[in-house]
Design a protein that fits this description.
heterodimer; A: about 500 residues; mainly alpha; Amino acid/polyamine transporter I; B: about 35 residues; 1 helix
C-alpha cells in the first residue's frame, strides 16, 4: 500500500522547527565569544556578509532540494541525479557523528540543571566541572569507567529524544513550539537581568565595540563563515528532511529569510545575556572583561557561567533558568539531527518510523557511551573539531558542486520561485556555482594547513588520526550506502505524489 | 559604552531583529498563517 508522506500541521510549525534546529548551544555560547575574539562589533560585517553569501543561499538550496524532490537528503539527491545520492548520505553521516556526542552535552546540561537547585558547583567551578563532575582522566588514552550521573541523564535524554521522534512530524510540530520559543524567552529574561547589573555596560562595550583593523584578518572571515555555517545547521541533513515534510504548495524563500535572520538575531540577543553578566562578574572581581571572557567552547558554559551565576542576586533561580535554557537548546538540536537521519533511513528502505528510529538510536547511544567515560571530554573535543572543521564544510561544498554544476541551480530557483512570496534572483545561481564553493574551498584549505602545522590542542597524533579517519570514512561510507538499493515503495510513492520523472 | 558600540548595536538590531520582523510580517499576510 502506498504511504502518504507526513507533513507539518501548519506553516508556523515548520518555521519554529527550523529555528529550533538552528538555535543551539553555538548561538547561546559560541557566538558571543566568536564575536569578541574577532574584532567585537566589526565582526558583524563579515558575519552578515557570510550570512548573505553562504548561509541564505545554502539554506535555500537545502530547502529547495528537500521540497522539490520530496525526500530526506539521500533520496532527494538521488532523485535529482542518480549518482548524487552519496552527497545526501554524507550529510546524514556527519549528523550521526554529531548526535553521538550531542547526547552527552545534553546529559551534562540535565545534570547541571539538577545541580543548579543547590548551586553544587561551589566557588571553584572549573575544578568542579572537570574533576568532581566529569572525573576527567589524564588523556584520551585513558577512558576509565562510565560516569554514573552522566549515564543516567544520557539515558533519560535519549528516551526523551526517541519519544519526540516516535510521535512523528505532527508531534514534532507541537514540541518545537516549546523548544524553540522557551530558549528565546529565557534569553530575554537573562538579558534583561544582565543589563540591570553593575558593570553590564563594560561587558557590552567588549561585545560590541568595533575593531575595524580585524577586517583585514583572514581568520576573522573564516570564523564568520564557520559560525554561519554551523549555526544554521547547514550540511547536517536536517533542513532537507524538514523541507520534505512541507505541503506541496508551501512557501520556501521567505521561510529561509525568517529562519536565517531569526537564528542570527537570537545569537545577537544571547550576546547581551552573556556579556552583561560577564561585565558584572569582572566588576565584582575588580578585573577586566577580556580576562573573564577569554577562551571559548562548549565546556566554558559549564564553568564560566556558573561563576557568574554565583555572583547574581537570586543565584538559584537564574542558575535553574540558564541550565533549563541549555537543556532546551540541546534537546531541539538533538532531535532535529536524529529526525534528519531517521527520515533518511525511512525513505531509503521504506521502514516504519519505530524501526528506523531503533536503527539510528541504538548505535548512536552505544557509540556515545565513549563520551560518558572519564576520557570522554577529550574525544568529544577531537570529534567535534574534525566534524565541524571538515565534515560539514565538505558536505556544503559537495552540495554546491552537485547543485551548481550537475543538477543546475536554476532548477531549484525556479521551483522555489513558483511557490514563494519573495522571488529569488539569479544571484542564487552565482552564489551556488561560484562564490560559496570558492569560500568553502578556501576555509577547508586554510583549516588543513593550520591543523597539519600544529596538532590540535596538542593531542597525541594517534588520537587526532581517529578524527582524520572519521573525516575520510564519511564520504567512503556514504558512497557505499548510496549503492544499496532503494525500496520500490519509496520510488512509487514519489511518482504518485509528483507525477513527474526525476 | 563607546559610540561605535552603540552604532553596532543599532545596525545589528535593525538588520537581524528588524529583518526577522519584516519577513514575518510578509509571511503573516501570506499562505499558511491566515
Amino acid at each position: 500500500m502506498e504511504k502518504k508522506r507526513e507533513t507539518w500541521s501548519w506553516r508556523g510549525a515548520f518555521v519554529f522547527a527550523v529555528i529550533g534546529s538552528a538555535v543551539g548551544l553555538g548561538n547561546a555560547w559560541r557566538f558571543p565569544y566568536v564575536v569578541a575574539q574577532n574584532g567585537g562589533g566589526a565582526f558583524f560585517i563579515p558575519y552578515l556578509f557570510a550570512l548573505l553569501t553562504a548561509g541564505i543561499p545554502l539554506m535555500m538550496l537545502e530547502f529547495g532540494i528537500g521540497h522539490k524532490y520530496l525526500g530526506a537528503p539521500p533520496i532527494a539527491y538521488g532523485r535529482a541525479k542518480k549518482d548524487a545520492e552519496m552527497v545526501g548520505w554524507w550529510g546524514v553521516g556527519a549528523a550521526f557523528v554529531i548526535i553521538t556526542y550531542y547526547g552527552v552535552v545534553m546529559a551534562w546540561a540535565i545534570n547541571y540543571l539538577y545541580h543548579a537547585f543547590t548551586l553544587a558547583w561551589g566557588t571553584d567551578t572549573t575544578s568542579f566541572f572537570l574533576f568532581d563532575f566529569l572525573k576527567l582522566s589524564d588523556g584520551p588514552g585513558i577512558l576509565g569507567s562510565l560516569n554514573m550521573p552522566i549515564l543516567a541523564a544520557y539515558v533519560i535524554g535519549w528516551i526523551l529524544i526517541c519519544w519526540i521522534i516516535y510521535s512523528g512530524v505532527k508531534g514534532l510540530g507541537k514540541v518545537v513550539m516549546v523548544t524553540a520559543t522557551l530558549p528565546v524567552v529565557i534569553l530575554i529574561i537573562l538579558a534583561l537581568r544582565g543589563l540591570t547589573l553593575n558593570g553590564a555596560m563594560a561587558g557590552l562595550d567588549y561585545y560590541l565595540s568595533p575593531n575595524f583593523a580585524a577586517l583585514g584578518n583572514v581568520k576573522v572571515w573564516m570564523a564568520a563563515y564557520g559560525q554561519v555555517f554551523f549555526s544554521l545547521s547547514l550540511g547536517m541533513a536536517v533542513l532537507i528532511a524538514y523541507a520534505s515534510y512541507l505541503p506541496k504548495d508551501a512557501e520556501i524563500s521567505n521561510n529561509v529569510f525568517i529562519a536565517s535572520l531569526a537564528d542570527a538575531g537570537i545569537a545577537f540577543l544571547a550576546g547581551f545575556a552573556i556579556f552583561s553578566t560577564v561585565g558584572y562578574m569582572a566588576a565584582e572581581r575588580g578585573t577586566t572583561v577580556a580576562e573573564v571572557a577569554g577562551g571559548g567552547g562548549i565546556g566554558l558554559a559549564f564553568f564560566v557561567y556558573p561563576q557568574a551565576i554565583n555572583l547574581l542576586p537570586g543565584a538559584t533561580f537564574f542558575g535553574i533558568l540558564f541550565f533549563l535554557l541549555l537543556v532546551t537548546l540541546a534537546v531541539d538540536s538533538q532531535f532535529s539531527l536524529v529526525e534528519g537521519i531517521v527520515g533518511s533511513v525511512m525513505d531509503k528502505w521504506n521502514m516504519k518510523r519505530g524501526t528506523a528510529l531503533a536503527c539510528v538510536a541504538i548505535p548512536g547511544f552505544l557509540i556515545g557511551l565513549v563520551y560518558v567515560t572519564s576520557g570522554g571530554l577529550y574525544w568529544l573535543d577531537i570529534i567535534d573539531k574534525f566534524v565541524n572543521s571538515y565534515g560539514l564544510v565538505a558536505v556544503g561544498l559537495a552540495q554546491c558542486i552537485v547543485v551548481g554544476w550537475i543538477i543546475g541551480p536554476d532548477k531549484i530557483r525556479e521551483h522555489v520561485n513558483a511557490l514563494s512570496e519573495i522571488k529569488v534572483g539569479k544571484w542564487f545561481d552565482f552564489f551556488i556555482k561560484y562564490l560559496t564553493p570558492v569560500v568553502l574551498i578556501y576555509i577547508l584549505i586554510s583549516s588543513l594547513i593550520t591543523d597539519l602545522k600544529v596538532p590540535y590542542e596538542g593531542y597525541p597524533g594517534w588520537a587526532l588520526n581517529v578524527g582524520w579517519a572519521m573525516v575520510v570514512l564519511l564520504p567512503v561510507g556514504s558512497f557505499l550506502l548510496s549503492k544499496l538499493k532503494t525500496s520500490k515503495e519509496t520510488e512509487a510513492a514519489y511518482s504518485e505524489e509528483t507525477n513527474i520523472s526525476a | 559604552m563607546s559610540a561605535g558600540a552603540w552604532v553596532m548595536l543599532f545596525v545589528g538590531a535593525i538588520i537581524l531583529w528588524g529583518g526577522t520582523a519584516y519577513f514575518v510580517s510578509i509571511a503573516m499576510k501570506g499562505k499558511g498563517f491566515s
